[in-house]
Amino acid sequence: MVKVLIVEGSIPDLRESVSAAKLVGGEVVALVYGKAAEKAEEAAKYVSKLYKVATYVPDPIFAAVKKVYETEKPDIVIGHGTKNNRDVLSRLAGLNDLPMATDVIKLEPGEGEVVYERGFLSERAIAREKIPLPAIVLVNPKVFQPAEAEGQAEIVELPVEEGQVKLVEKKEKQLSGINLEEAEIIVGVGRGFKKKEDLKLAFELAELLGAQVGATRPIAADYKWLPEDAWIGISGKRVAPKLYIAIGISGAPQHMAGVSNAKIIVAINKDKSAPIFKFADYGVVADLYQFLPVLIKKLREKKKS
Ligand SMILES: Cc1cc2nc3c(=O)[nH]c(=O)nc-3n(C[C@H](O)[C@H](O)[C@H](O)COP(=O)(O)OP(=O)(O)OC[C@H]3O[C@@H](n4cnc5c(N)ncnc54)[C@H](O)[C@@H]3O)c2cc1C
Fold this sequence. Notes:
The protein has 305 residues and is an alpha/beta fold. 30% of the residues lie in helices and 27% in strands. The chain folds into two domains: 3-158, 3-Layer(aba) Sandwich (Rossmann fold); 180-304, Rossmann fold, CATH 3.40.50.
């Protein structure tokens, strides 16, 4: 029977990884750190044995992962591709000469191997690959359904071993209140908007639809018209809304990689040959400055009636 070790820093990630693990394995144990370690009682509901290490720092997380790997001798290690996981699990791979699959969106069991799919060419294509066990698999967020609680496993607390990296100070990150990962509807804005003030059209539309506003990289990173939390794409956030309305966005692969899990994409662009129309389920060829005021007016009238 294949044994899976999950390594995660948050409960939502743990729940998704448990579902992924069940596709390939039998016994599922986990090591949690960071936020998930603070909620170890909750985390213990999803696995048959839980290790916790109460730290956010990669060095002691790695020391704990190494210890648990040697104790449990799992066939597969599964985790989300977060910064900490990429750090500690690539060290584990190097140390034990393990193959590692990244950006995994589908998993299947194999005979002494794991078969998986992952997006490549900025998510324009899907590769189906296999690697021999034991192996490490990094999964993408929001691909696997969160598992339901099943019991209450034993919790083993591991010591926080100091490494070369030391936590000097902890500061709350200034967040803008944008939570694109959870949003069901996102209005995405691009360089089709000529001035920062014009974004009010997108915010009005978003308010009417109960949506969040996201952006392409130039809008958030270069012009700084919106905070970096709004930046969607390969180097920004990956989102999975039910509806993504892309306004004045050309559809560059680096942006579209971030919305490949959107259920429906609507594009509004004045250039009928813009690449975004290849990805869109519905396309509107129009100048946003003419189209949005009309759309907003119609939605307002509909809301009133
Ligand atoms: C390594 C790397 C990583 C990157 N990562 C990201 C990333 O994570 N996210 C990201 O978004 N980008 C990323 N980029 C940048 C990416 O390649 C594109 O440059 C960017 O996505 C383009 O943004 P845009 O669509 O807003 O602008 P543009 O490509 O300039 O498109 C603007 C669009 O607006 C339309 N338009 C203009 N005026 C109007 C109007 N009045 N009404 C309607 N439509 C109009 C135009 O026809 C055009 O299609 C990355 C690039 C590199 C090299």
